[in-house]
Amino acid sequence: MRSLVTPARESLPPGDREAGRAFFYGEGGCAQCHMMNGRGGVTGPDLSEAGAELTLAEMEQALLKPEARRKPGFAAATVRLRSGPPVRGFLRNESLYDLQLQASMGGCICCAAMRWRTSIATRRPICPR
Questions:
Q1: What is the mean pLDDT of the chain?
Q2: CA 21, CA 55: separation in Å to the nearest integer?
Q3: Which of 84, 104, 107, 118 is a good FRET partner for 93, with 20 to 30 A between their CA atoms?
């Protein structure tokens, strides 16, 4: 029963820690978007405390079905403006009055409600894998 609520870090799962680190920063491409202990990308959630916050089962689910466990501010969206091309990126915040979108190509767009036509959040995160 304890294993159902024990954080992954305390569960001491078997495996090669260095191989996991090499995969995260190398072939896996995780660090392109995610940060771990101050190193990596910023377009995905910081995973530095994932081992303390998630159980092994939750971590496995997050790896196999990332869309099932999305952190606020990391939903992928396409915003269709009243003029100009659609903008795709991460919907950092949205209210009745405005939205903030971190564009995929860099930069942050703050947009008053009167400037956009539609905002479509996608079900899957923007992830190369």
A1: 82
A2: 19
A3: 84
Q: Strands, DSSP E only, in 1-129?
A: 35-36, 39-40, 75-81, 87-94, 98-103, 108-112, 116-121
Among 120, 21, 127, 17, CA closest to 70: 127
Dist CA 64 CA 81 (whole Å): 34
- Measure the CA–CA gap between 38 and 56, rounded to whole angstroms: 23
Report yes or no: 79 and 118 within 8 Å, Cβ to Cβ.
yes
Check residue 13 and give left, alpha or beta (phi > 0: left; psi -120 to 50: alpha): beta
3 state DSSP class of 76: strand
The residues that bridge with 77 in the sheet, in sequence order, are 89, 121
| For residues 79-84, average pLDDT | 81
Model pTM above 0.90: no
**The two three-digit tokens of residue 104, written as one number:** 């995929």
